[in-house]
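Why run this: before we spend reagent on co-expression, it is cheaper to look at a predicted model of the complex and decide which construct boundaries make sense. The entries below are exactly what would go into the expression plan.
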Amino acid sequence: MSLLKLEALSKKFGDHWALKEIDFSIDEGEIVGLVGPNGAGKTTLFNLITCRHRATSGRILFANKETTLCKPHEIQKLGISRTFQSSRPFAKMSTLDNVVVGRVFGGEFHLFAQSTDIDSAKQLLELVGLAHKEQTPAGDLTLSEQRRLDLARALATQPRLLLLDEVVAGFSPVAVKQAVDLVRRVRQRGVTLFIIDHFLSLSLRVSDRLLALDHGEKVAEGRPQEVMRNREVIRAYLGMRHEDEPHGA
Amino acid sequence: MRKKETASQKAIQQQVAWAAPVLGLVLLLLLPVFARYNDYVLQVFTHALLLATLALAWNILGVSGSISLGHAAFFGAGAYTSALLSLDLGVSPWATIPLGGVLAAGIAAIMGLFCLRLRGAYFALATLAFVEIPKVITDNWDGLTRGSLGLVGLPGLPSLRLGSYHFDMSGSLVGSYYFVLGYGLVLLVLVTLLFRSNLGLALQAIREEEVAAEAIGIQVQKYRLLSLLLSAFFTGITGACYGHLIRYLEPGLVYGLHFSAIPMIFAICGGRFTILGPALAALVLYPVDQFIFHPLLPAGHEFLYGAVIILAILFMPSGVWGQLRKGHFVSIKTGSIE
Ligand SMILES: Nc1ncnc2c1ncn2[C@@H]1O[C@H](COP(=O)(O)OP(=O)(O)OP(=O)(O)O)[C@@H](O)[C@H]1O
Ligand SMILES: [Mg+2]
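The model came back. Tokens follow.
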């Protein structure tokens, strides 16, 4: 059964189509990579799914319920969380509080944080390797630490579907490897993942399937190796528009 | 070696964070004795305490990141409500003071309708303009408010009977002083609980990153409205106390820019990301203004506030207390009083 279903989803900014008629669906438990060159419409697709932006046309269904016109906080309540391409930590709050607040508002609301909320926030910090920084203001973390904090905060809301926007951009090879492990462990928790990964360093290794976009259009979908052999995808990535130019990938 | 130093620095900071407020509290409790019951000193500190409660109340909204320049609307509405109910209907100030808060919150709900969709400077300017509405109404509804004539002969602060004890809050300056101190401490406890609660976490999250706050399920506008209403409620109570303290009111006085700007100045100088900062700034700056600058520059003593706010914005954007608490703002985890 598909968890997320996009039907002819389109988004227009001014007179520019950022997304055109995207049909796609993701099954429960899958890890799907979303690839494409800069400006392809990847982040826009996440913004539509999380209702930060409203679709120009088309429909979004999550767990068989139409969510096209929801509010961002309602989407979260239904079970979709996300990270941001440039992470958005609550800079003056402690790293731990950043995760606690995700836990509290993603789950059942209590006026005061329960010790279980704090414990599970600590476990998540452990999971992303930030346990030693729990009292550091989030704004003082390095950029890669802030990415991991973004992830921990999104996980704290206990999503069914997690959208990751460029989590490993700028990571060292070692850090990418750790992220691969991390993503697999997140999947083991029963979370379905949709991962934007411009440089493919993460999605090629963990994804069950890829969706490739270019200029707002779906150019390919399927198993990672197949998609990467697709001529359209190669061309989009190498920025080549002419048949006669060589391609080396 | 280095690590040890920073660890001990941190310990010192923690101790300052504890010792300063405790010491301050003891000083405030004993102040009438230190001041040898000097009327002027007592008056100044009573007013400083009242301004501290104003700053604390202002910061209930401030902590969510919204800078209001319209709190005089709530201050004036609270003052007039309590004054008229006690003066014309003879209701005890014990009842009319909270009612002042309720009306202020009602006005805040209307303000919220118009202003909460705005952010930053636009929000500040809209709130500044909004003050004119209750002010013009108060000024012109002569039948109810006596208009620009103002009100005189307000009943004093209410007195308290506990068994055979009778604390007269209005008859003496010392009584008034302790009344305002008591209210200030109650408000401080409430604000501490609020800021440390999950509600406080939500308000801080909204201040730091509204988009991310929304994405983790926080209903941003609902919480912004709630913080505005609570902030207005306590500002209204402070305004009501002010009326019973000085015992006369005029629209131009209680709806003046002064009561909008002063809590913002104290909050920003003291530290609007902290619980105590705004109140501490009021308790330090107002007496400095009155005891030092007023005698020196009777006409322009308020330049002090202009100077400190410029200095704070340029050199200490998180305020003096915020700077001392370096990175340890309000948190559910750290046990200290921020
Ligand atoms: N809020 C917006 N207003 C106007 N145009 C926008 C907006 N957001 C995105 N766009 C445009 O939509 C197109 C797709 O942008 P999007 O951010 O989705 O690309 P992307 O695939 O995430 O690229 P990148 O790899 O650079 O992050 C771009 O041409 C962009 O300029
Ligand atoms: Mg993007």
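Strands of chain A lie at 2-13, 16-27, 31-35, 57-62, 65-66, 80-82, 161-165, 192-196, 209-214, 217-222. Confidence is low (pLDDT under 50) at residues 242-249 of chain A. Bring this page to Monday's planning discussion.
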